Amino acid sequence: MDKNGIVLTHKYELGRLLGQGTFAKVYYARNLKTGESVAIKVIDKQKVASVGLIDQIKREISVMRLVRHPNVVFLHEVMASKTKIYFAMEYVSDGELFDKVSKGKLKEDIARKYFQQLIGAIDYCHSRGVYHRDLKPENLLLDENGNLKISDFGLSALKESRKQDGLLHTTCGTPAYVAPEVICKKGYDGAKS
């Protein structure tokens, strides 16, 4: 369905589709009051409820509100209708690190810069009790100035989620990126660590 021209809450005009996953689509949008470019993540409430992921969405909102760092995608606001949840987020214009890496080897100075930005942002998150749990090149975005931005905190966990054994017992990782030792012998079932 083409969303061009649809206006959310008299504030954001939706544009082209930027990407999509199982439960959400992300659109380019423009703030009608300020002219600022944003990304709108549209989540289907019925789909996430049918698989028991409402708490995960609430956790993602809490985490994104808690984490304010120049190398983490900024959450402007959350809106909702009867059927959808909308995240208005910082628009990061230059795509995924995955696309850049797939075109060939990065120059050492650029790779070092991305790595330093990544570990700085992760250290910041960990110091606030936030664990991303799905870091991969597809969740590392690049802005127009060549800066890295961590996105998609959908599988994140908070320090309070630890059980008595000291482990986080929430789903984590993407099968292609999960360490082999955390994949059960029956196949990947949402690695727990």
Structure description:
Helices cover 23% and strands 26% of the residues. The protein is built from four helices and ten strands; from the N terminus they run E-E-E-E-H-H-E-E-H-H-E-E-E-E. It has helices at residues 45-50, 54-66, 97-102, 108-127, and strands spanning 7-8, 12-20, 24-31, 37-44, 75-80, 84-90, 130-131, 140-142, 148-150, 157-158. The longest helix is centred in the middle third of the chain and has 20 residues, at 108-127. The radius of gyration is 17 Å and the shape is globular. The N and C termini lie far apart (38 Å). Residues 188-193 have low confidence and may be disordered. It comes from Cardamine amara subsp. amara. Keywords: ATP-binding, Kinase, Nucleotide-binding, Serine/threonine-protein kinase, Transferase. GO terms for molecular function: ATP binding; protein serine/threonine kinase activity.
Question: What's a concise summary of this model?
Answer:
It is built from four helices and ten strands. It has 193 residues and is α+β, with helices and mostly antiparallel strands.
